[in-house]
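Z., the sequence and structure:
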Amino acid sequence: MAFSKKNISTVGEQLRTIREKANLPLREVATNIGIDTSLLGKIERNERQATKEQVKQLAAFYKIDEKKLLKELLSDQFAYKILEEEADLDTFRVAEDKVEYLKTNHNAK
């Protein structure tokens, strides 16, 4: 079976690429969004995860789609949690079923 690898990257890697393409120093971006330069560096290197608020600020600063970046953040969080728990992808499929169940039961109330 042939496997097609998508162009996948983390939020941190995406943010670093955007910053480097804009030829902006880490310090300037960090100052503009109100966080420490070392924290932004750690986010870009996947040593720390950005908060939802930081992602919103970065999306506004770079003038990129906030919803798309937040979706990427959430997918990073899912992926890290699955790795952390040493779970397999079947766990993700079970969670997907539970999301549908919760949506159905929540909407019925």
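The longest helix spans residues 89-108. The helical segments are 11-21, 26-33, 37-44, 52-62, 66-84, 89-108.

Let me know what you think.
H.
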